[in-house]
Amino acid sequence: MKKLVILTVAALTLATPAHAIVGGGTPQADGVARAVVTIVGSRGNFCTGSLIAPKLVLTVAHCVQPGADYKIVGPDGAPQLLNVRTVAIHPSFNMQAMQAHRATADVALLQLEIPLKGKSTVPVGMPNIPIPVGSRFTIAGIGVTVRGDSKSGGTTRVAALIATGQPGTLQIRLVDPVTNGVRDGIGACTGDSGGPVFEDKPNGAVLVGVISWSTGPNGAAGCGGLTGVTPLTLYRDWILQTARSWGAAL
């Protein structure tokens, strides 16, 4: 069991063409993938975020903790780093709970100094409640496809997963519908933390959660088993209020 962080900026900006999401996630540059961005920290961490307004990126709290500076990689993987002006972490976030894969407010917003061009924004919503076991969601991220291989991260990939366990307003656990989490399958991995989780709505895909953690098969350490999601059901109002306080409308 592990946090989905820690790759180097050098690996991100200098690596040969790479992928994201273990187990065969599909490379994608259009559709929901156009909202996906890469976040890098001055301590070498590397996460995923979503552009929800021209100057606003949604990600997870554990990726943007105090004590480091954060930047957004320029569109299309260009070796250009855009400055982050402000980071807002949900006040109820608890790092120990997240590390234990318990539900917590693993949500954060980044305000950019200038609008991010070359990307599309995505609407922020909430999952349909109640969430039945077997409900389908699409995840996206720029993490590694091979655990421990930093050069295998950096390109946006998407994957369709289904809800398992007891999904609710506090946490959703997703698995590959083919492997059901009992053997290696598709799922989030290092670098996918903060990536968007989409649900299909009548007007198209809506961002309804963020990727928080992963496990290997049968709950072992690693990737390709469970993908832990923080749904936005309890946090959408905070996102909207924070955006308004920064002068942005969603």
In short:
The chain has 250 residues and is mainly β. It is built from 3 helices and 14 strands.
| Low-pLDDT regions | 1-20
- Sequence of secondary-structure elements: EHEEEEEEHEEEEEEEH
Quote the average pLDDT.
Answer: 86
- Tally of domains: 2
Total strands? 14
CATH superfamily label of the largest domain: Trypsin-like serine proteases
Which of globular, elongated, flat, extended, rod-shaped describes the shape?
globular
Largest sheet data? 6 strands, antiparallel, barrel
The CATH class label of the largest domain is Mainly Beta
CATH hierarchy: architecture of the largest domain:
Beta Barrel
Distance between the termini: 34 Å
The CATH topology name of the largest domain reads Thrombin, subunit H
Q: Given the structure, what is the number of helices?
A: 3
Strand neighbour order, sheet with most strands? 9-10-11-14-13-12
β-sheet strand percentage? 25-35%
* Helical proportion, percent range: under 10%
* Rg, nearest Å: 16 Å
Structural class: mainly beta
